[in-house]
Every structure is written in structure tokens, then in C-alpha cells.
Design brief:
This protein has 190 residues and is of the alpha/beta class. The chain has a single domain, classed as Rossmann fold, CATH 3.40.50. It contains six helices and eight strands. A six-stranded mixed sheet has the order 5-4-3-6-7-8, sandwiched between helices. A two-stranded antiparallel sheet has the order 1-2. Strand 3, helix 4 and strand 4 form a beta-alpha-beta unit.
């Protein structure tokens, strides 16, 4: 079996950006993991999903947030041998739509491309619980906390690194006048 080096894949895909970024959490930082750049390469996405699937193989369903997690969730579901669904925001609230269902007692893996605070993952976990599902784990491409995140369930990352983030008030990049960029999928005012 070939050992997958997630760091090499992220570099080959030009997924690590440097600058001054506004994260979905509202925090600021000097680096951004643009996982969409990885997801444009099916062979990279497949390799990363296979890398962590064996640690998450006890699931019937994989659920991901729209839009950033859909491709990753699908590929992770394929590697696990599970069904793939996604949740999306409706009036600012993450919800199941499009006829997707979570049967009571179903073992579910939550898939996300990258996390810093885990806010979106926690929203998805609550959806799973509200529908009577059992969260079997979380599968993420990039954990920006360096393994420090406690989601209350098993979390497996293809790549884990600590990327410093700051509140807007304490951000040294803001203080230095570096222009702020919001590269993610969720709309925020910059």
C-alpha cells in the first residue's frame, strides 16, 4: 500500500495561501487552506479519503456541509462504502433539504474540508443527533488546530497543523494595515 503524504498533496495543489484572511469563524490569520484547490484533482481527493477511511469505516452515511464539503463528503463516503448526503443553510440555519434523511440509529460520519473552530461541524453534529442518528466520527482534510480540537467524537484528519488565528481586535495584520481577504465559500462582510 502506498503511503499518502497529505502535505505533498496540499503543496502540489497550491492549497496553502499566505496573506491576511478572514476565516468563516470570524477570526483572522496569515495562512489559509484553500481545500477547493485540492478537490479539483480527483486523484488527490481519492488518496486523502482513502488515507483516513479505515479509521472511519463504521458508518452508513457521510454528511457534509454545502458547498465546501460536498465533494469531500462524497469521496469520503465512497472510500468508506457509505451513502453521501449534505446539509445546507436555509435562512442562515444549517438543515437537511432535497429529501435527504437520516434514519434513527444510523451511524454517521461528518465530513468537512477544513476546520479552525469546528462551528460548522458542531452544527452538522446537532442535525445528526436531532434526527436520531449516531455520530461515528468526523473526517476532515485539514485540521488547523494541530489536533487540539475536541468535538466530543472521534476526529480524523488527513493533515493537521496549527495555524495561528486572531480576533480582529488582536490581529497583527490588521494593525499593520495588510488588506483583508475572505477566500472561503460563506459570504461575510469584509
Amino acid at each position: 500500500m502506498t503511503v499518502v503524504n497529505a502535505s505533498d498533496i496540499l503543496k502540489k495543489a497550491d492549497a496553502l495561501l499566505d496573506g491576511h484572511f478572514l476565516y468563516t469563524s470570524g477570526r483572522h490569520g496569515a495562512q489559509y487552506m484553500q481545500c477547493a484547490k485540492v478537490l479539483q484533482y480527483p486523484e488527490f481527493t481519492e488518496a486523502l479519503a482513502k488515507k483516513i477511511a479505515s479509521d472511519l469505516d463504521d458508518a452508513e452515511i457521510v454528511i457534509a456541509p454545502a458547498i465546501g464539503g460536498i465533494v469531500w463528503g462524497y469521496e469520503l463516503a465512497r472510500a468508506i462504502g457509505a451513502k453521501s448526503i449534505f446539509a445546507e443553510r436555509e435562512n442562515g440555519v444549517m438543515t437537511l433539504r432535497r429529501g435527504f434523511e437520516l434514519p434513527k440509529g444510523a451511524r454517521v460520519v461528518v465530513a468537512e474540508d477544513v476546520y479552525t473552530t469546528g462551528g460548522t461541524i458542531r452544527e452538522i453534529i446537532e442535525i445528526v443527533k436531532a434526527h436520531g442518528g449516531v455520530v461515528a466520527g468526523v473526517g476532515v482534510i485539514v485540521d488547523r488546530t494541530g489536533g487540539k480540537m475536541d468535538l466530543g467524537v472521534k476526529a480524523v484528519a488527513a493533515y493537521s497543523t496549527e495555524i495561528m488565528s486572531y480576533t480582529p481586535e488582536e490581529c497583527p495584520l490588521c494593525k499593520a494595515g495588510v488588506p483583508l481577504v475572505k477566500p472561503g465559500s460563506r459570504t461575510q462582510n469584509v
